[in-house]
Design a protein that fits this description.
Radius of gyration: 23 Å
Number of strands: 4
Distance between the termini: 25 Å
Largest sheet: 2 strands, antiparallel
Shape: globular
Strand content: under 5%
Number of helices: 19
Strand order of the largest sheet: 1-2
Length: 567
């Protein structure tokens, strides 16, 4: 590790913190329905959309109605994207003549983008037409991200309101998240990316003659606009198969920094939205602090592991850490930082191949996802994910002192704890059950690129990424098979909607409760003690759940590496 590397990491963290308050303030005004700087232009469009949809900005829904609207909207998006892939060969904006996508891959891809996972079992530049990329994938990048933000805002209203029957309107929250937040920021990001050299064209691929005289086909397309929402919406699906390691998706260090900031910006700012809407910004900073502790710990371990590299390589007199699978223009510090960011958030974009990381370096992305993507997390998903652990931590604190647990004046009772545990437990179920089945199926094991514990980690990483709605991969698993396309698709649905529904149920339950004034016995939830308790609960639950799987994967691989054995 080097001082320069740590300076890059700390500069990133400082910029994220600087963005939290202004973006949080703006987002709060948007979801409160207050006037913003964009209202003169966007308010008429917003009202027009409500008129077309047959709703009104003042209409609100019970949590169950909110959930039904959300599920129906996402089902419609899934069917549309599936159908688009199945007939893309007959549709326009297909200059490279992309054919029909196979049913199992079309199912996997449709589920992937609707759930904000963006797992890709295909090469984007060699499988999907421009129309499918724009009308299918890019649209879902926007609305799946907006769906996550909407759920977070509904949950915040559960804490902010008292004796209320509604948690807002899904249609209003979805519209405002897309129209006032995602679209304007993506326009600015797209212009910046084009200026930095990213392609933005509808022309077909070009053929170039190399120095050796060979012919090389260079894919291009509407890349910049897709990268903008890919990162800002923590989607992660790349226009190119190499994702953010491709020079057309990530030309230089400036674009790399902008993309990393985009991944964290909205997720971090939502903690400030929470603090503002409940009337105590310190509450939001406490949650962000817990996220920050876990993030810095992960970056430190990943950077250390990659900087030290493999002793087998060092024994040959080769220094410089582990550079395998990394772009030289980013190096070890920015590769380790990007890997930690993209898996701390449910983004999944990669600028280095995680399967080429050392055992412990690759374990950090795994742990980030196994904890439930609550370290900043996906847009919205990270916030409502960590609130589930907040409910659990408050319950544990209440048991320790023999007092009915309270949080922000709301009593945390059996219903909230049951819903939180249901949401928390569905993730390891999806991750571990399918992994256990896959490692004993010869056909599934045959898709791995490595043997031994690394091969096990490839399979574990795939299902962990799917359940956590992350979408990144070890990149050494050939997952475009009927088994993986189907089971990973099911896992993505479980990881998305079996967390969303309990979270909305908690929002509705809390909104209906009266607010209880704080007393001398109230546990303070805006200081270091609460931050420590929250971090401790997250690590204990994660450790008890996943240590056995990690022990037979990256941990034993690391021990084997120290014993001069590689896989």
């Amino acid at each position: 590790m080097t001082l320069y590397g740590w300076i890059q990491i700390l500069v990133f963290c400082a910029i994220v913190l600087a963005l939290v308050k202004p973006l949080g303030s703006y987002m709060t005004r948007v979801f409160n329905g207050d006037r913003t700087v964009l209202s003169p232009v966007l308010a008429p469009i917003e009202r027009g959309l409500y008129a077309l949809a047959g709703t009104h900005e003042r209409e609100e829904q019970h949590w169950s109605g909110y959930a039904v609207a959300l599920l129906l909207f996402n089902l419609a998006g899934l069917l549309l994207l599936y159908g688009l892939q199945r007939v893309q060969g007959l549709l326009p904006l297909n200059p490279d003549g992309m054919g029909t996508v196979a049913p199992d891959l079309a199912f996997n891809t449709a589920v992937s983008f609707v759930t904000n996972t963006n797992w890709q079992g295909y090469g984007g530049e060699s499988t999907l037409s421009y129309l499918t990329q724009m009308l299918g994938l890019t649209v879902q990048n926007f609305v799946s991200a907006a769906t996550g933000i909407a759920i977070a805002v509904a949950l915040i209203r559960g804490f902010a309101r008292a004796s209320a029957k509604s948690v807002g309107s899904f249609w209003v929250d979805l519209t405002r998240a897309t129209l006032y937040i995602l679209l304007p920021l993506c326009i600015l990001l797209t212009l910046a990316y084009v200026a930095l050299g990213m392609p933005q064209t509808l022309d077909a691929a070009v053929t170039a003659t190399t120095i050796e005289g060979a012919q090389q086909t260079i894919a291009r397309g509407p890349v910049a606009s897709q990268v903008a929402i890919k990162m800002l919406g923590t989607n992660g699906g790349g226009f190119f198969n190499a994702n953010a390691a491709h020079p057309f998706e990530n030309p230089d260090a400036t674009s790399n920094l902008i993309q990393m900031l985009s991944i964290f910006a909205i997720g971090a700012a939502l903690t400030n939205v929470f603090g503002r809407m409940v009337g105590n910004e310190r509450q939001g900073w406490a949650i962000l602090s817990a996220m920050g502790v876990l993030f810095i710990a992960g970056v430190a371990v990943c950077y250390w592991a990659e900087a030290n590299g493999n002793p087998l390589i060092q024994a040959l007199g080769l220094e410089g850490g582990n550079l395998e699978g990394k772009e030289m223009r980013f190096g070890i510090p920015l590769s380790a930082l990007f890997a930690t960011i993209t898996t701390a958030a449910s983004c999944g974009a990669v600028n280095a191949m995680h399967g080429s990381f050392t055992a412990l370096g690759g374990m950090i992305p795994l742990i980030n996802m196994e904890l439930g993507e609550i370290i900043v997390g996906g847009v919205g998903a990270g916030f409502y994910g960590i609130v589930l652990f907040v409910v659990l931590a408050i319950f544990v604190a209440g048991l320790m002192v023999g007092r009915t647990p309270e949080y922000l004046g709301k009593k945390i009772e059996a219903r909230e704890v049951k819903m939180a545990m249901l949401a928390i437990l569905c993730l390891p179920a999806g991750m571990l059950i399918f992994t256990a089945i896959a490692v004993v199926l010869p056909g599934a094991v045959a898709s791995t690129g490595n043997s031994g514990p690394h091969g096990f980690s490839e399979i574990l990483y795939a299902y962990t990424s799917a359940a956590a709605n992350n979408g990144s991969a070890f990149a050494s698993l050939s997952a475009n098979t009927l088994w993986y396309n189907t089971t990973l698709g099911i896992t993505m649905l479980v990881g998305r909607f079996l967390v969303i529904i309990p979270a909305l149920a908690i929002a509705g339950s809390l909104a209906a409760k009266k607010s209880v004034p704080a007393s001398a016995g109230t546990f303070p939830t805006d200081g270091p003690l609460f931050v420590g308790l929250l971090v401790g609960v997250i690590l204990i639950v994660g450790g008890l759940t996943f240590f056995p799987a990690l022990a037979v994967g990256p941990i034993v691989e690391h021990l084997a590496m120290l014993a001069s054995q590689s896989f």
